[in-house]
Amino acid sequence: MNMLVGKNLGGYRLIRLVESGGMGDIYLAQHARIGRKVAIKVVCGDLRAVPNTPEGKQAAVRFEREARAVAELDHENILPLYHFGDEVLEPDGPTITYLVMPYLSDGSLWSWLQRRTQQYGFSWPISAEEAGYYLVQAATALQYAHDHGIIHRDIKPTNFLIRVEKNVPKNDEYAHLAHIFPHGRPKLLLADFGLAAFYRHGRSMHRSVGTPLYMAPEQFDDPSLATSVHVGPSADQYALAVMIYQLMTGRAVFEGTASQLLHHHHHTPPTPPSVYNPSLPQELDAVFLRALAKKPEQRYPNIMAFAQAYDEVLRENRKKKNAEKKEFRGQAKSREGGKRFLQREDTTLPVSPIEKVVGTAKHGGSLPSLAAATVHPALEEPSEEKTQPRKKIQMQSRTSFSTLVAASMQFKTIPLYLLQQSTIFGAIVIGLVFLLLLTIGMLLTMLLLGHAR
Predict the structure, then answer these.
(1) Omega within 30 of 0 (cis) for the link into 296
(2) Domains defined for the chain, CATH in brackets
(3) Cα–Cα nearest to 28, from 107, 95, 114, 81
(4) ∠ CA 249-150-108 to the nearest 5 degrees?
(5) Parallel, antiparallel, or unpaired for β 150-151 and 37-43?
(6) Alpha-carbon radius of gyration of the chain
(7) What amino acid positions are annotated as catalytic residues?
(8) How many of the other CB atoms lie within 10 Å of CB of 126?
(9) Is 389 exposed, middle or buried (0-12, 13-18, 19+ CB in 10 A)?
(10) Where are the residues of the annotated region Disordered (predicted)?
(11) Cα 292–chain centre separation
């Protein structure tokens, strides 16, 4: 039995098997004395059983390559290496090569996304904003590795581990993603440098390796051929573009068997991501088509340039959306303000005193006298020669006018014909009074003349 559960390796007791891959097995282990939990990676059981075969020797070489690569890298987004060693667990048993690394209970990016979708109901595929958050972290880690002369050559979601950080600043540059990560913000750590290659001398001569779904066209080439294109940092850029494309669209750039994928990566133009996910900004299409170019020199000059181009599109898209929201809110406020203005127009706009006279009558109030509505002659200042009763009458006139002005803030109709009819009526009354007085005078004159005779 090749299972190592219960065995002690490098001072750690192996508790359980966490993951088993084509080249290695990962165990959860705990230090026998201090109790720290770690992840221990060993050559897989099948290859341990045949250490002297080409496959067994290759696995040991791969482990050593990974240890040397990670030992040179000290970055917050790269999984660190605690220890590397060889150990014989049983007499006459095979030598076991192992790596000791931090244990991250949240698992890989791929498994974490699956849990978010299945257990918490988050949408799949993910949004451009969430994918951009992962892209920046992954590109930062890979750029650091490239700057140290190391290419990863096996970029995929299962090779990024997750550490969920719950206590993060609320006002940092990713504060707008709080609704996407309500249970804590994930931090990516690049792992599995088993296929890493050193390219300090400008060309990697290792044979074609990687995961075909994510491999750049040049990774399929036979490096011994004169027509082959050397595998450099741009291969990681291509693979990272495929990975982010997959997270945003729910499908890989190309699918099929290994031979079909070889053909597609070499000859088939990629479909713009917005075709599969219309919610994505169309400006991202050009970013991906460049990062997925067939020839390395047609891609971005480095992997951070790819991430920055992606981030710039998102920033411009956020600015555009914020401007649209402000414009919408401004229009809404204008409409509300106009509505309130019209309401004030209906209730509080002052109009002429004549309107108030009629308005009061229409609403059942007492109608001020017509004299009170005659503004201009009634408000003249009296002269010193006026008598005291005249002053009293003038005060009454002022009071009536004040009452009229106070009433003027409530009504708006102005039937002018009523005023005209009132003036005619007054003239008729005056005429009748004049005729009555004339008649009385004539009668008195006749009586006096008759008495004199």
Answers:
(1) no
(2) 1-103 (3.30.200.20), 105-167+176-201+210-221+230-327 (1.10.510.10)
(3) 107
(4) 40
(5) unpaired
(6) 46
(7) 154
(8) 22
(9) exposed
(10) 320-340
(11) 26
